[in-house]
Specification:
Number of strands: 5
Strand content: 5-15%
Number of domains: 2
Strand order of the largest sheet: 1-2-3-5-4
Distance between the termini: 32 Å
Helix content: 55-70%
Radius of gyration: 33 Å
Largest sheet: 5 strands, antiparallel
C-alpha cells in the first residue's frame, strides 16, 4: 500500500488484481460536513457512471440487479452500502476491505470521479499526486530491475571466479622473458599466459584469449592498456612493467569480483541518484 498527500489529506493507494485502487474512505476526510459514501452511492448520476464503468470493464456485471438499483437511486428513502452494491451486482470497481488498514477502495477511474464530489480542486490535485506517485514507482522499479540483474550477473560469474579468475603473481621467468608483442605483456599480467600459449592449450577453440575473457577481465584489460602506455612513456623497462601491471591486475580483479564492494558502490550510486534525480557513476555490471 502506498500513500499520497492531497491538499493535506493522506490518501492510501492499494493494488487489487493488478489495478490501482484509491481509498475513498481517506478522500472523504477532506470533505466538509457529515457525509458518507452511501450518500454518494444514492445519487443517480453516480449510478449512471458506475454502471457504464462496470459494463466496459466487468464481464460478470449483473445488469438485472443494476437496473433495479438504478430505478431506486435518488429516492429519499433509498440507501445502499458498498458491500450491498458489490454483492448484488458483482461490481468490481468498488471494494470494501475489512481490517486495520481497510476501508472502501475505488478503481482510480472511479476515485477520480469521487474526487469531483469532494471538490473540483481536490480532484485536480488527486490526479496530479497520483501521477507523481506512479512516476516515482516506475523509477524505483527500474532500479530494482538493475539491482536484481547485478545479483544475477554476480552469481553467473561465481564459477568463473572459482576457476582462478584472479591473476597469479608472475614468476621470475615470466618477468625476465623478452616479449615481442606488448599485447602479450598484458596477457601474461592478467591471464598468466601469452596468446600463443593459450592457443596451444585450446586448439579446438576459435579466436584468441581475449575473445573468451569475461566482463571483469575486459574492464581490467582496458585499464592495463592505459597504464602500460604511461609506463612506456616514462621509460620503464619491460621486466618492471610486467610486474607493475600484474600487481594492478590482481588488485583490480579482486575489487571487480568482490560482491560486497559491488553492492556498496551500487547502493551508494542508487541513493545519490534518487536524492538528486541525476545519474551518478556507473554500476559494476
Amino acid at each position: 500500500m502506498s500513500k499520497m498527500n492531497v491538499l493535506g489529506t493522506e490518501v492510501s493507494v492499494m493494488i487489487i488484481n493488478e489495478q490501482d485502487y484509491i481509498s475513498i474512505t481517506d478522500m472523504l476526510k477532506a470533505k466538509d460536513g457529515n457525509f458518507f459514501i452511501s450518500d454518494w452511492l444514492r445519487n443517480r448520476n453516480t449510478m449512471e457512471f458506475l454502471g457504464i464503468w462496470e459494463r466496459i470493464y466487468n464481464p460478470n456485471f449483473n445488469y438485472g440487479e443494476f437496473a433495479i438499483i438504478k430505478n431506486q437511486a435518488g429516492l429519499n428513502n433509498y440507501k445502499i452500502s458498498v458491500k450491498e452494491w458489490g454483492e448484488k451486482t458483482n461490481a468490481i470497481g468498488l471494494q470494501a476491505r475489512p481490517g486495520r488498514y481497510g476501508g472502501t477502495f475505488a478503481h482510480k477511474d472511479i476515485a477520480f470521479e469521487f474526487g469531483m464530489w469532494i471538490s473540483a480542486e481536490f480532484k485536480i490535485y488527486l490526479i496530479k499526486e497520483f501521477q507523481r506517485l506512479k512516476e516515482q514507482e516506475y523509477k524505483q522499479l527500474g532500479w530494482d530491475i538493475r539491482r536484481n540483474l547485478t545479483k544475477i550477473n554476480y552469481r553467473i560469474h561465481t564459477d568463473a571466479i572459482k576457476l582462478n579468475i584472479i591473476p597469479q603473481v608472475v614468476t621470475k621467468e615470466q618477468a625476465n622473458y623478452k616479449y615481442a608483442q606488448e599485447a602479450d605483456i598484458l596477457n601474461v599480467a592478467l591471464f598468466g599466459m601469452t596468446a600463443a600459449d593459450w592457443r596451444k592449450q585450446n586448439p579446438k577453440l576459435d579466436g584468441n584469449i581475449r575473445d573468451y575473457a569475461d566482463v571483469c577481465q575486459l574492464v581490467c584489460l582496458a585499464n592495463l592498456e592505459s597504464l602500460n602506455a604511461h609506463l612506456i612513456n616514462d621509460g620503464i623497462p619491460q621486466e618492471k612493467r610486467i610486474i607493475a601491471l600484474n600487481k594492478t591486475a590482481i588488485t583490480q580483479m579482486k575489487i571487480l569480483t568482490d560482491e560486497d564492494k559491488i553492492h556498496k558502490i551500487n547502493d551508494r550510486n542508487l541513493h545519490a541518484e534518487i536524492k538528486t534525480g541525476e545519474p551518478v557513476g556507473k554500476e559494476i555490471w
